[in-house]
């Protein structure tokens, strides 16, 4: 059991620590980050109930569409909703990179409990692939979500803020849908998912740097 717990928790904590430590402008209170992570953990339960209802009560004609809606749309919407109502208006969200920190935290909280349940059922032999694929993919969807939440927060114009808020939800859903589609549309998914994940990491790290650059300008322009 200890091996399962360690294998389930370690990837999420490691990835979250990486993104948290990249915040070299005004690091967020660790208590806020942990709270957001816990919100992500708790989010698993209502999402699982909703997904179960959809699976059993709705007459899906396409497995691909069912997977995209039940997983990509539902999971990313609820993560976004938690962020918007608990973090977005908070006083500690005071520079653009904070959006990435909090979005990654809620995403990894969700992915960590999901990973634990999966490893309990299937064993730790697949822990490496679970860390590389589902856990890190949730984190990277969170990077895109948080990047545009940060851009929205400091837009300065209401209409631009609304557009960026929409993008902060739509892009993670699209990326999550593409991720799911790879597994459902080809038997040779390994040859597609590995470059897809590497591309997500590359683009995600570019978003991190851009958020830092934007944050530096935001802090410099504040009245002293």
UniProtKB/TrEMBL annotation:
EC numbers for this chain: 3.4.-.-
Keywords linked to the UniProt accession: Cell membrane, Hydrolase, Membrane, Protease, Transmembrane, Transmembrane helix
GO biological process, alphabetically ordered: proteolysis
Annotated membrane topology: Multi-pass membrane protein
Any one GO MF annotation of this record: peptidase activity
UniProt GO cellular component terms: plasma membrane
Domain of life: Bacteria
Enzyme category, top tier: hydrolase
Subcellular localization(s) per the UniProt record: Cell membrane
Record-linked NCBIfam families: intramemb_PrsW (NF033739)
Family of the protein in this entry: Belongs to the protease PrsW family.
Protein name in the entry: Protease PrsW
Organism name: Brevibacillus borstelensis AK1
């Amino acid at each position: 059991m200890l091996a399962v717990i360690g294998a389930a928790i370690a990837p999420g904590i490691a990835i979250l620590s990486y993104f948290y430590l990249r915040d070299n402008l005004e690091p967020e209170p660790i208590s806020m980050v942990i709270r957001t992570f816990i919100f992500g953990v708790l989010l698993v339960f209502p999402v699982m109930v909703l997904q179960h209802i959809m699976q059993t009560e709705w007459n899906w004609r396409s497995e691909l569409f069912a997977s995209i809606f039940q997983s990509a749309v539902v999971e990313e919407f609820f993560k976004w909703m938690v962020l918007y109502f608990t973090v977005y208006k908070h006083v500690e969200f005071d520079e653009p990179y904070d959006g990435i920190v909090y979005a990654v935290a809620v995403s990894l909280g969700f992915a960590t409990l999901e990973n634990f349940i999966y490893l309990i059922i299937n064993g730790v032999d697949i822990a490496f692939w679970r860390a590389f694929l589902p856990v890190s993919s949730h984190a990277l969807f969170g990077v895109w979500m948080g990047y545009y939440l940060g851009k929205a927060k400091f837009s300065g114009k209401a209409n631009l803020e609304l557009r960026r808020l929409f993008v902060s939800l739509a892009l993670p859903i699209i990326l999550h849908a593409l991720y799911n589609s790879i597994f459902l549309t080809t038997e040779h998914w390994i040859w597609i998912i590995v470059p897809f994940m590497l591309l997500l990491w590359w683009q995600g790290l570019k978003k991190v740097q851009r958020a830092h650059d934007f944050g530096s300008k935001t802090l410099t322009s504040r009245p002293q």
